Amino acid sequence: MRIAVDAMGGDLGPRATVEGVAHALSLLPANSAVLHGPSHVLDAQLDALPKSLRFTRSRLQVSHADTVVHEADRPSQLLRMPEETSLHRCLMSLARDEVSAAISGGSTGALMVLARRYIGMSAGLERPAISCAVPTEGGGRCYLLDLGANVDSSPEMLVQFAHMGAAMASVVDGVARPRVALLNVGVEPSKGAHRVRQAHVRLSAVPYRSFEYTGFVEGGGMFAGDVDVVVCDGDVGNAVLKSSEGLARMLGKRLQHRFEDGIWTRIVSFMARPALTRFHHELDPVRYNGASFLGLAKTVVKSHGSADARGFSFAVQRAFSEAEERLPQRLASRLLDV
Amino acid sequence: MRIAVDAMGGDLGPRATVEGVAHALSLLPANSAVLHGPSHVLDAQLDALPKSLRFTRSRLQVSHADTVVHEADRPSQLLRMPEETSLHRCLMSLARDEVSAAISGGSTGALMVLARRYIGMSAGLERPAISCAVPTEGGGRCYLLDLGANVDSSPEMLVQFAHMGAAMASVVDGVARPRVALLNVGVEPSKGAHRVRQAHVRLSAVPYRSFEYTGFVEGGGMFAGDVDVVVCDGDVGNAVLKSSEGLARMLGKRLQHRFEDGIWTRIVSFMARPALTRFHHELDPVRYNGASFLGLAKTVVKSHGSADARGFSFAVQRAFSEAEERLPQRLASRLLDV
Fold this sequence. Notes:
Two copies of one chain form a homodimer.
Chain A: E1 2-6, H1 14-27, E2 32-37, H2 39-47, E3 60-64, H3 75-80, H4 86-95, E4 101-104, H5 108-118, E5 129-135, E6 141-145, H6 155-173, E7 179-183, H7 194-205, E8 212-217, H8 221-224, E9 229-231, H9 234-258, H10 263-283, E10 291-294, E11 299-302, H11 309-324, H12 327-336
Keywords (chains A, B): Acyltransferase, Cytoplasm, Lipid biosynthesis, Lipid metabolism, Phospholipid biosynthesis, Phospholipid metabolism, Transferase
Family (chains A, B): Belongs to the PlsX family.
InterPro entries (chains A, B): FA_synthesis, Phospholipid_synth_PlsX-like
């Protein structure tokens, strides 16, 4: 199985992406990747790979692209750009089925616009949504969407997100009839923003065969494990996801600080290290890196812009597993079966 | 200093509010409170106070109210309701200056509608916003608003929130020129929901004397300590606040679980208890209970609906301190001095 990588996307540039891909390939010996970007830059990165990853090099191919998409490029510009950016070429090779999936850590907006153009949507869907799974109290997980691909979403789009999220929970986690809720400021039907109340009316109007609509849920409900899917506009979901990551990071630092506070706690800390390490592991946003673009006809994964090599490796592994699972095709057939 | 308490608000009812007020008064020997609600219910609760709190009873007065506001009552209904609910009477006594502040753990919408009617707004402001301070990495704090008093906010309202939040950081934390940012899905000017981009244009148009507008910030920026105030619509702020609380609660439980995992970690856990307890303390959403209603002419505090006696006690203490600081008056004069 082969994947196309926009090696120039992401805040840390090709150093993080190239090493990240190599790390993922070191764990997946049957897979390979095509790195898109200026060949002199990427060849230099490949030469600089840590010794322990050099054996993956034969499975890492470079495909030259002259230019890159910048965070500040507007969607309208992107569509008129020459097809020589690393992102354009990465998605075009997926469109031509030369690879099974594409991944980028660059601008979400650019990825979305170009993915819609080259890859296209599954039947009946208007726009892709970004989703990730958050861990819940009982040890399960809950899909949150949209995470920022769409702002100013219409009620109709929120309804589509509900279908897409439910399909994800069914296909990936095997939940027979996922419980789907709308994120709101309160649980009473009279509360909330206009579009949220309108979406509630539509989702309540008919019972769905493929999922159970459970009404409104507040922000805490996501982690409580009461529902399998939480739907909101990208403006809200993005703020929730990024603030949760920021909070987890801050708490991790504070916990460490607490355990460096004086000699006695330092000794205890040494002994407690295995338990603390496991906890840090659970807190680690890197492990949850890689968000799925739902609704597209093929597998496209967005890595966090700030991901380091380890984070990018997780996102690459996710892209391979979604492509192996044939997630877009299974989502599409599930969506037809409402 | 005396406070009016809607003793019937909150999910746990008068048991939590009465004990919470008594607990706060046990720490503040010069203060007193008036409890609004059905007198037979409240008298019974006072009789059932824990022994250690009974000495506060002489400073706890009951003011009979026949009925209560229910979470499902619509704002239009509230304004037509007889003025015999505990919330109506609580706010009316603040309006008549019989007390220095009012507090309720009931419906945010009801509190907002009735507070606007009876207490009124500071000059030049349209609607109150709810704000609370979140802790930041460096040990400081950042004010987040609005937390759910307003949904579908106009750009103009977001600009007013910026002024209100800046005034809060100046008055409460003594920040000379607070850094104020708009919460958004990205930091580029072309990104985000329509109202957020419009508010950005307005806030960027002129430099403000009393605060520095720093542009867009993403969700994680709130905890990073880069800004003093983060402004967003109530739909977003409410989701961020409640999901942060949910996440902190989940992480606290998981940490505990990690330390109960096997005999060796149990022994370590026993020794690590002081550090863990301090950490749990920092995580504890209860300690941050009580959100300020900014923009009202007098002090009104909203306690979390789910707060227990300890949580309600924190909110009561906050109400006393805001009234002592003459926060609404100082905010109003600060707002005139833009």
